[in-house]
Fold each of these.
Amino acid sequence: MLDGAHLVGEAVSAGLNIRHALVSVERLATPEIGELAGALEQRGVDVAAGSASVVAAVSPVRSSSPIVALADTPSKSEKLFESRPLLVVIACDVQDPGNFGAIVRVAEAAGASGAVAAGQSANPFGWKALRGSMGSALRLPLLVEPNVEKAVGTARRRGCRIVAAVPSGGRCLFDVDLTGDAAVLIGSEGTGLSPDHVKLADDRVTIPMTPPVESLNAAVTSALLVYEARRQRMIHGHPVSRSAS
């Protein structure tokens, strides 16, 4: 489900196979929606116009969008380990779709290779996660793997060093070498990584925090880690991944 002009436009730009679209007849005359509807029709998409009440019944958000669409799920997981140096974010049991979407957004922004929805993580292609990613989930290679151990094992076989983000007891973020192929484990919003999942890592990293703060949001943690990796790689002249493109 693509809700809103931004997501539908991003799907068009990403070349997704869009099957159906519903446009508010009251907004069809506006340049943004009219041009977008025209672009969809040129691609052979079935575009229907409905009253505001009809669109409101279809749109999942409280303030309904002027356009919604249904598209095939992107299939780019095979590209997750293509680029070098690798930087993969493995989100473990991140159940809030908005948080997961934000993780995907910042992963693309920092030039990560891709992300994994591991364990009980939210569906990265659910409408809330898609809105949280602001379209990044339509471009960045994503993998859904219910088994965290399998997700970690796959990353390790592809040459990644596994780095677990822990609230305390790990090496300082700025002292960990992230210039090589790496997969970063991010834990759930409430409890973080389980001890068993931490044991899967080759290294543990802790973000320095001033007391009494003890932990950070999962998306914020991801942002700090992937941007520190980007900073280190740029300093050492390593390329930043652009696999999403």
Note: The helical segments are 5-14, 31-42, 52-58, 97-109, 127-133, 148-157, 195-198, 218-235.
Amino acid sequence: MKTCTPDYQIEQNCTGPVCGIDEVGRGPLAGPVVAAAVILKPEALRSEIMRAVNDSKKLTSQKRQEICLGLSDIAHIGIGLADVSEIDQHNIYHATFIAMKRAYEDLCAQHNVLPATALIDGNKTPDLPCNMQAIIKGDTKSISIAAASIVAKEFRDDIMKKLADEYPAYGWDTNVGYPTRKHLEGLKIHGVTPHHRRFFKPVSELIAITS
């Protein structure tokens, strides 16, 4: 396996336990925004699977699935979502922080652990009861954030693929809600679904035309 780009240096410089938090789904026209919070166990750095961890966008779906399966044994993981109604109500910026906070809370509740430090991908932080560090392009610099990006993307992709069975005209099994040609054609022909973000263009424009 190729050695990953992010390493454990940032985590070593922090007060522990350290969790990495990342989100996926800010740009799609449909579906929730999903965040993951990940604490790597001490044995994780000796695991072969960690050598494959990288920014989720640089990995194939098969590789992400393999990593998620391996992480289940060597990491504590929490998941948080903000659904389309919350995205429409609060906007995607604030909905992202809602999802991140829920991922942190899910991590604490599921594994009875309280992170001392949270490493957040981006330049802003949610409201969490611990030390926080925002890291721009954190999924290329922190192994914990990179792991969280993989978990969040696989979880969200799975949601969208299941929704595609109910709404096959939009291509969500492959575009996972992003505005591809097939998705846009599906909107024009079949209209807006309950899973579309009503204040995102061109969804909002279609609603205005048909209302």
Note: The beta strands are 18-24, 33-40, 75-82, 117-121, 131-135.
Amino acid sequence: MRLSEQTFSTAFLAAALVVAVLSGVAGLAAADDYPSRPVTMIVPFPAGGPTDAIGRVIAEGMRPTLGRPVIVENIGGAGGSLGTERIAFAPPDGYTLGLGNTVTHVFNGAIFPLKYDVVNAFAPVGLLVSEAAIIVVRKDLPANNLRELIGWLKAKPGNALLGTAGVSTQSDLVAVFFEKATDTSMQHVPYRGLGAAITALMSGEVDVVMSLPANTLPQVRAGTIKAIAVTSTSRLAAAPDVPTADEDGLPGFVQTNWHALFVPKNTPAGIVEKLNAAAVAALANPEVHDKLVTLGQDIFPADQLTPAALAAYQKAEIDLRWPVIKAAGIKAE
């Protein structure tokens, strides 16, 4: 006996409704029971670096609220895309949490041929912290402020050597944005990480590095390199004598590397809410706050710590950054 088209359509819709309801109930039940075991936070960069340090501070800070350990797993490689891919294809059950940043969830989408979409493969959990770049130069370079550095670069176009942590890293791309904003050009010299680039700067092997405060301030204080400017909207608490780029000849030049938490798409909303609450509680903890500030981090305001705020922030960053990256022809090597 053949069902009529109308009967079949009605039966199909009814079945789909039942599946949707049951899925919703299952999601609520999962959220009620969550977490029943430790959560893994994937940090898509090697252990010992600044992103790893941030991840471990946040992971420990989330533990009291979740009532379970948050275990950091480092999966480095390909500019953070290998670890981020693991997050994208993990089961959407809340037990795989990912620490992402400007590189993994903005830059890489314009640079690497990824197996996942940097937006649609994830559910946003919340923004955490951001850090400015700090422009540093070799100690004997004949420039002591940003205006003088820009003049020096213009006088020798394409000849100055810029040390970076590698192609398509934050230090590399901040320099691309700087060159565009100042109409200057430098030879980009990639190293294996910012530590190696700073060592090259100390020895005079390169002239300039667009670094992160945690990698740089000890050498600035020791006088082995010079700090020219920071790329934030305000001066760093850890280096109040270093002016912002905006103050010193480059209005509106703000470049920050933000960090945020993501989970695989289709993770139940109730679980996302629990993870967000744990992250917000961690950031409000004075001990966690102090550790992050020591690492040169600025915590996002409370009204920007929601999943919706992260989604909007990521989209705005993509709209701003991708055209510059693509126009520069930057591709993964």
Note: Confidence is low (pLDDT under 50) at residues 1-27.
